[in-house]
């Protein structure tokens, strides 16, 4: 897989490893946020975290939500004025 989905997968693996390395943060609320091009990869990473958390009993990531500001979504919606 290439592109934004690969970025989401790589970021997910980073987060899982980070929470294993720093378990004191594991149970804190976790939010994702970004702007501009994050309109592509933040929702994909959020969806991946949500889906992974559903299939394991003790989620690695205490995911609560995400937000994007001034997000790039697609050419049509971004350029309509």
From TrEMBL:
The keyword Magnesium does not apply. GO terms for biological process: proteolysis. Pfam families: Peptidase_S10 (PF00450). InterPro entries: AB_hydrolase_fold, Peptidase_S10. GO terms for molecular function: serine-type carboxypeptidase activity. Transmembrane segments: none annotated. Keywords: Carboxypeptidase, Hydrolase, Protease. Gene3D superfamilies: alpha/beta hydrolase (3.40.50.1820). The keyword Hydrolase applies. GO terms for cellular component: vacuole. PANTHER family: SERINE CARBOXYPEPTIDASE-LIKE 27 (PTHR11802:SF198), SERINE PROTEASE FAMILY S10 SERINE CARBOXYPEPTIDASE (PTHR11802). Belongs to the peptidase S10 family. This is Putative serine carboxypeptidase.
